[in-house]
Amino acid sequence: MRVAVVTFPGSNCDADAVHVASNLLGVDAGLVWHQDVELPIETGLVILPGGFSYGDALRSGAIARFSPVMAAVRRFAEAGGLVLGICNGFQVLVESGLLPGAMLQNASQKFVCRMVTVEVATDRDTPFTRGLAPGDRLRIPVAHHEGRWFVAPEALARLEAEGQVAFRYLEGSDPNGSVGRVAGILDASRRVLGMMPHPERAAEPILGSDDGLKLFRSAVTSLAEEARG
Fold first, then answer.
1. In which band, very low, low, confident or very high, does the pLDDT at 205 lie, cut at 50, 70 and 90?
2. For residue 12, which of 51, 75, 112, 138 is within the disulfide window of CB 3.0 to 4.6 Å?
3. What average pLDDT does range 75-87 have in this prediction?
4. Which string of b and e fits 163-199 if b means at least 16 CB within 10 Å?
5. Sign of torsion, CA 140 175 14 135?
6. Cβ-Cβ contacts under 8 Å for 74 (sequence gap 6 or more)
């Protein structure tokens, strides 16, 4: 099993994601350039990392969605592969239509960079939360200007009913004004996750929290269990 971390022009958290997968979890991991048209053989998890792809021109993720690699990512997701979009990666997944909703500027209209607390919101079995329980809290940092996720109220109710709201900011901890305090959302298969907080920046105690490692470990463990049948 291999973890493929996509690098777009302007990505700045790609090496962090590779470090977590390879050095902390012992998984084969490497970078995939945005111009590549295929993912590496035996890819089990694709990570779209944080950063400022294409300088956030037009709006965050709007140009990255047209990168050649995204066609391969779409095929991978449609075939049941695991995809994790972090911050800018979440924005790319939304722009690509792989996740619902739209991204707006933070309610404060300011860049926000700080530690927040999120809680597991889904009660469904997902590869990303298998090692967690509903209500579990994670301390993870955010760093974004365009992180206010939005859908219409009826769409939010439907996503909540289907267990697709993965993480919520605690009341009073919401850094951007997302509808329903949503910090992370799943697709209908619950195998594509987008989240604004950065779990790769909270994967070791020296960083102030290692709560983010639980999410990566859940994904890797889920893939190993699936491989064993």
1. very high
2. 51
3. 98
4. bbbbbbbeeebbbbbbebbbbbbbbeebbbbbbbbbb
5. positive
6. 96, 98
198 is catalytic: yes
Between vectors from CA 18 to CA 57 and to CA 4, what angle results, nearest 5°?
75
Q: Which of 87, 95, 119, 146 is catalytic?
A: 87
Which member of 13, 95, 144, 198 is catalytic?
A: 198
What is the rounded average pLDDT of the residues 54-62?
Answer: 94
**Quick one: pLDDT at residue 229?**
78
- 87 belongs to the catalytic site: yes
Q: Which of 95, 119, 146, 200 is catalytic?
A: 200
| Tokens found for residue 126 | 């997902």
State the pTM of this model: 0.97
